[in-house]
Structures are given as C-alpha cells and as structure tokens.
Amino acid sequence: MVIPRVLIVDDDDSIREIVKIMLKDYEIIEASNGEEAVKAYRIFKPDIVLMDISMPRMDGVEATKEILKIDPNAKIVGLTAFARSRGKEMIENGALEVVEKPFTRKTLIGLIDKYVAKAVA
Asked: Residue 11 belongs to a domain with what CATH number?
C-alpha cells in the first residue's frame, strides 16, 4: 500500500508539530503560510492538504484557490479555529470540508481515509 502524502499548512509551529505527531504513519510535508503551501503543492503533489485559514502573507482561502488552479482535483480540507466565520468561504473556494480546531487524531485519520484511501488503494 502507498503511504499518503499530507501537506500540513499552518503558521503556528506547534500546530504543525501536533499534526505531525498525530499523523506519524504518513509522509508529511509542511508549510507555514499560503505562499509556501502553493510552492510545496507544485513540488510534492500531496494526496491531501490540511489547510489553516488565517495565516500571514497568503491566507488559506487564497492558497486553496491557487492550488486548485494548479490541480483542479486537489483535495483540500480547512483546519481552523474560525470555522463559523470563515468556513463557508473555504468551502465556496473549493475546500472539501472544514474541521474546527481543536481536532482529534481520529478526525484527521478519518479525513485522510475519506478523501485519499480510495484514490491510493
């Protein structure tokens, strides 16, 4: 079985570290803002992107739009503390769904299984 490649995008180093620990069985790529996320997507073509919404330089909504220009089939899930205020905006711009922080390991693995397992299996 192919190990899914996950791009974690968050400006908070501690959130990226926590997600990396939660997803230790996956191949992880990291980005700390939207600009880095777009570059990383071009280079690594991850199976799924876990995208924070509120970030400096380029937010998650803009990064989602840019990634979907590169790959209209990109699987992007918003991870945010601002799901109520900005979640709809993420969905309208192409995210598959939005998960509110804090989230559990089970939630993240469920997302990967839901959106990637079928494509990878």
From this structure: 3.40.50.2300
